[in-house]
Fold this protein.
Amino acid sequence: MNYISTRGTITPIGFKDAVMMGLATDGGLLLPETIPALDRSTLEAWRTLSYQELAFNVMSLFATDMPAGDLKRLIDTSYATFTHAEITPVVKKDGVHILELFHGPTLAFKDVALQFLGNLFEYLLKERGERMNIVGATSGDTGSAAIYGVRGKENINIFILHPHGKTSPVQALQMTTVLDPNVHNIAARGTFDDCQNIVKSLFNDLPFKERYALGAVNSINWARVLAQVVYYFYAYFRVAEPFGSEVVFSVPTGNFGDIFAGYVAKRMGLPVQKLLLATNENNILARFVTEGDYSLGDVVPTVSPSMDIQLASNFERYLFYLFDEDPARVCQAFAALPTKGRIDFSPAEMARVRDEFISRSVNETETIETISSFHAETGYILDPHTAVGVKAARELVTDGTPAICLATAHPAKFAEAVVRAVGFEPPRPASLEGIEQLPSRCQLLDADRDSIKAFIEEKAR
Ligand SMILES: N[C@@H](CCOP(=O)(O)O)C(=O)O
């Protein structure tokens, strides 16, 4: 399997090189040349596999240059850190299927991919005798998951930018209390979009990228998306009845990476009726699906801070397919975006979008009210991001199709919002006990590319 860029100007490369490249060197995002289509008998055969076995079957279709034994070992090592035997179990509460993605070390769905990617980087670097400086941006969850994926690894340094004061307190502490010498946290005075822009611009500075061997942990890295495809299959096999019938996945969406993984699963042949794109008040993607309005606005802070994003990086991967795999159109759209502030779509394109997606933007009051009412009805505490997806599913999926809501984080990461909703703090998993008392380390900097570049140059090994 070879990988190409959404911008169309790189020579196709294999999986391992794609993982190491992160952002494509032409500024685009990497995608497999083709997405394998599965027949019903393959799906049937996968139905009873363990999570790890399923992960191997899905990933080996895309990671064709990885020896099978090595891939299996990396998968097993990566998921041994999870506290639930099923890795991503599905629980049913009041007719809603909740896909719990928060049983990894940092209590968010990001661990599913970043435990794997950390081990994969270590493996590839060892094979090549190389080192890497990871540079990533986070609105809250990716940062700690990436740090936990690579902390203490000898040939890797990690620099994570987060928007100062804009994550939840626990999200910030999960990053800044990791004191391994290879971990560097930067609190940037700006928004997540500022952080993501700086990261992308450093990757697009090819001499800098090469000199410091930059590696990507954000979902610009194809391996992130790939590892997340697996749980769509896993959840489908637990929920669909009869086998072969359709389901809806409700996905709280910020950077479009998680829902894009669902889109890949659907393209592979998973019977998904619709992907429900659920946003908070940062609703550019919901406006796109419901009104065809993809115009940039300002980021507003919400109780679901991981989704406080305007410019979702993986949207580009979806546009590549929407534009019939024509890189010239993708280039045009992104070249005009900074000046025009919008991307326009034809009625035919919007019809295709609505064939695949439904969407709902959920406001702050609705989010808190959903945590509160869901708890009153079921005794289950939703985190604010998951509540956005549950609210959207309850409102939009009313025809009896099973709705699988992705529970993207543990509620204890967002205690303030939960207290507002139910009047008490959610029980804390052991990993968060006493986190406020731990020593921490973080560099506060302006959201300015040159200052951040200089900091990386000073600390890079
Ligand atoms: N919501 C994310 C933002 C970064 O997204 P990614 O999927 O590209 O890593 C976060 O929590 O950091």
